[in-house]
Amino acid sequence: MSANDPQSQPQQPTPRGQDSVQTLLLVLVVVLVLVGTGYVCVAHPSLTAPIAAVGGVGAALGAAFGVVLANRR
User: How many alpha carbons fall within 13 Å on the CB side of residue 14?
Assistant: First the structure.
């Protein structure tokens, strides 16, 4: 193997602090989306059913995303 072969180089672990920041930002975005969605449902009741349908699909995608993150560690 040559010195430039990417498989011969050891993998650098992700710093723990960076992982915590990514998790914090992900939680912040989720909270902001939920608050915004709640406001739209209260301000425009006719949009509640479509938003609930999208929320159901989003919940399934979120669960899948959570499983991927859990398996990555």
Answer: 9
pTM over 0.85: no
pLDDT tens-digit profile of 1-50?
A: 555 666 666 666 666 667 788 888 888 888 888 888 888 888 988 988 98
CA dihedral (65, 68, 69, 70) positive or negative: positive
Q: Which long-range contacts (CB under 8 A, 24 or more apart) does 1-4 make?
A: none
Give the max Cα distance, the chain. 64
Q: Residue 18 has which token pair? A: 């960076």
Within 13 Å, how many C-alpha atoms sit on residue 23's CB side?
Answer: 10
